[in-house]
Amino acid sequence: MGRKWNNIKEKKASKDANTSRIYAKFGREIYVVARQGEPDPEANQALKVVLERAKTYNVPKTIIDRAIEKAKGGSEENYDELRYEGFGPNGSMVIVDALTNNVNRTASDVRAAFGKNGGNMGVSGSVSYMFDATAVIGIEGKTADDVLEILMEADVDARDILEEEDSVIVYGEPDQFHAIQEAFKQAGITEFTIAELTMLAQNDVSLPEDTALQFEKLIDALEDLEDVRQVYHNVELV
User: Fold this and answer.
1) Nearby residues of 210 by Cβ (< 8 Å), 6 or more positions away
2) Staple partner for 127: which of 52, 79, 93, 108, CB 3.0–4.6 Å?
3) Which residues fall within 8 angstroms of residue 184, CB to CB, at 6 or more apart?
4) Rounded to an integer, what distance in angstroms lies between the CA atom of residue 129 and that of residue 47?
5) Where in the chain are all domains bearing CATH 3.30.70.980?
6) What SUPFAM superfamilies would the database entry show (predicted)?
């Protein structure tokens, strides 16, 4: 699959190490998901997914608690969930998920980020058909064979199990996200290096060095936008 999730996560963590951007984005996402359902993760599976992901990014408990309390308090702050699709340099493909309280602002910002970095916006469906919704869960301290045995004992299916550096990464169907985590927890594993519901490209592409640098600038520009929650693409970055 070539996604190299550890490298991607380290790059994001490094970029956000000296800012509160990532915490603010998680706070907004937790609030929205908690408000859409129950503010209890045991009764709201979507919230549980977000909280598991927040944990892997070391989001402070105070941020999480504040967002959930805000949802419980009946705040009237409303956000729209939006998805944009577009193309980067050399026909590379990008999906942008956003949460916004100003649709016009977000659309303008996303379009500008594409336009200034060698890309262009596409219509809905122009890119997403080349991606698969995927659960990605990573752990440390086990081999791929160990993980396969754990999942088989729990009667849980996975699309793929790969060893990446010091981690084992499990790729599964989105509806298997909690089943995979529960299998690990039953085996005494409660810490995850990655816990994501993502859009995974069916085929990754490589770009020439100069084009790859331009593409990275595009992704950075999109991820820096306040309203952008997640950015997915099909480029193999080194």
Assistant:
1) none
2) 93
3) 137, 139, 150, 190, 192
4) 26
5) 80-129+202-233, 131-201
6) YebC-like
